[in-house]
């Protein structure tokens, strides 16, 4: 699937993609700079999209680590499956609210998310955040890119510490929240 086809899908399904454009390389690098990949053996990405963040994760993760990438858009899933054929990368074409169904009781070291929480119904958003917190190792991190600071108040009951940073090197400029349990 070509980049043009992915861009078309981005615009036709704005309610599920939640973005005007894909994440810039600068945003990906800044987001992933807050993740410690040296000890991470189980990594989860919520909202694989075009694979720009997935690519950055794969480049940084240990060879023995496993990556689960959740994406609900079938076109994006097919593209991700074609891009990432490594045996330790699994594309999950399902909702992030079913995270626990795929972890088999294991906890993730890192959960990296670009989900458009402001467009996701509150009850679904709450389940995703609850499960992300519950299935994250005590020393793990949940890192979310977003465009509205108000999400911090929705994350606060589930994470003890939330740091926020900002990057102008993306369109639109983007917040990054680094959450710890």
From TrEMBL:
InterPro entries: Methyltransf_25 (IPR041698), SAM-dependent_MTases_sf (IPR029063). This is Methyltransferase domain-containing protein. It comes from the Bacteria. Pfam families: Methyltransf_25 (PF13649). Residues 43-140 form the Methyltransferase domain.
